[in-house]
């Protein structure tokens, strides 16, 4: 199984920087199914998103 990709272009366009730090993160899957993480670091939130949607191959990071 390949690791899913995380597209941060929308986030970077909105915030002017790459995602980092602690917060509640939004991720969309290929089906535009948005999930909101609890307060986690960005790295922890990516792991959390993969656990929530193990079938997803691509996530978009929301702003």
Automatic annotation (TrEMBL):
<protein>
    <submittedName>
        <fullName>Uncharacterized protein</fullName>
    </submittedName>
</protein>
């Amino acid at each position: 199984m390949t690791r899913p990709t995380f597209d941060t272009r929308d986030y970077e366009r909105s915030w002017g920087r790459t995602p980092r730090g602690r917060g509640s993160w939004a991720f969309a899957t290929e089906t535009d199914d948005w999930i909101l993480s609890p307060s986690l670091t960005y790295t922890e939130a990516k792991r959390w998103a993969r656990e929530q949607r193990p079938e997803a191959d691509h996530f978009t990071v929301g702003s």
